[in-house]
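Complex record, two chains
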Amino acid sequence: MKDGFRQAMAWLHTWAGLIFGWLLFAIFLTGTLSYFKEEISHWAQPEVRRHALDPVASLGLAQRYLEANAAHSGNWMIRLPSEREAALSVGWRDPSGGRRGFVSKQLDAQTGQPVEARDSRGGEFFYRFHFQLQMPHPWGRWLATFCAFIMLLGLVTGIITHKKIFKEFFTFRPGKGQRSWLDGHNAIGVLVLPFHLMISYSSLVIFMYMVMPASIMASYGGNTNGYFNDLFGRDDVPKAANVAAPMVPLAGLYAKVQAQVPGARMGYIQVHNPGDRNARVSFAQASADNIAYKRSANWMFDGSTGELLSQGAPESAAMMTSFSFVGLHMGNFAGPWLRWLYFVFGVAGTAVIGTGLVMWLGKRQLKHAKRERMPAELRLVEVLNIASMSGLLLAVAGFFWANRLLPAALQGRADWEVNTFFVVWLLSLAHAVLRPGRRAWGEQLGLGALAFALLPLLNALTTGQGLNHSVAVGDWAMAGLDLTALGTGLFLAWAAGKMLRAPKAAAKRELKVSKASAEVVEVNGC
Amino acid sequence: MKRNAAGLPLSYRLAVTSRCLAAVLGGYLLASMASVCITLLVPLAQVDAAMTGMMLSFVFYLLAFIWCFACRSARHAWLGVLLPSLLLGLVNGLAYWMKNP
């Protein structure tokens, strides 16, 4: 601990940043990918065909399919195709089948028949990892939320540390080693500061009921459900009367919603007690239509008479505030351009964390530049830096390669894609342990460059939906991922080139180290 | 080990650990107490009061963290989070008792 307020805050910024930096880097990178969750899922399941949107026809197809295949179930769920999701998704509760008693199918939006797509989690994997960290419930969410808090703390202490922050923003001194890293760290940090503050605070709001439950306990006693009932204004659905009654066409109910809110897109549509006298159908407006979730944009119909029973209650100011933070974080409302801006901001956030980690080490390495070997704790940080940054990029590439190369008939195929991700990540950790720092960086970034740059080619060869096809038919989700992979590959190649060309000052030491470790068995990233 | 001992004495390490615990645990207690206090005292509907309390609680957690590392000693860190928590706890007890007699 140093004397002086700013020095103390700089100390806190440095150490909190180091300890949580590796995890935060992974959270930010996968979160950034999650802005293109549906697009990644589309890339991961190219078998799902895109058709012109026709909500009325889609509802008819969904109802027909569910009546034929899920008449025995007490709960149906429908998700209509949208600009971002090609498939018509249906699901139903079935205690005897499916994962966790829930069966879900993707239907072709034109034929209404199930699509035989390869088994893959697609963008859902990165999305879930972003806030659950592949840990059992609820620990992943707790840890991820605590990391978000540390990010917020890092931002505030960072602002305090650099009080001349806006003046320094216009200072960038490239090609000056440590200085350039600091300038870059500050410039990116300040440029996207409003985004960073929003994204880290809103993650706390998303899980506040979980991490800060004292208010709910004090106000609602043990009855947590009371809080959620007040919050979402849920109606109780009656039990099935066990008297058969034909369902009204869902398309007719959809028309009634459209009469109230013209042009509203639909999110989840749920049917309770289908084919019963007590059938209930609920419509919710799509999250793409508004920034904040609107509980008022919910409609409950009687499924056998078609009568509108209730509409969601209006929101209070506190609800609007919290729902707006959640909506800003998720970015579901964003169109293509704003979505790309979100992506760029997310990359910037990832870069701020990455440059911070690199700087922490660089500053301390300078002190030991004359020594033969780095102190063990610095070496540990170096290995973790490499594995958490270039290693994670390799793991992401590994996931995409596995998606294209694993046979469609493989049992538990989606799990094997996830396993590939973690195995590649682990191998890159082993590689970072065995190879000297700069070489490990260079080799992993180089391999990453190849893996990403060749991804469009692999896609073209395995699915026939390469860039020549996707650009021609205007499938920009497919082309976008290919082009982004190509761009990532080029960037990584540039970075790998920098790393493999050792700087003059460090060249001698590097040479000694690499000679000493020449006998060490080389383990490649994947 | 020798390097560590030469650079930073054990008492310093213990003090830093103590400050960390004060920030994480004491800060959480302070944030919880503050959020309950807001929830019980703010003149809003029940659900809005609870949300407002929870949304503002993180500000207190943040301030507690900053305090714990900015103050002069680990003892001050603990005092700085525990005394306000105690005070808020008393207010909360009173407010809870008046609402649920």
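Note: DSSP finds four helices and no strands in chain B.
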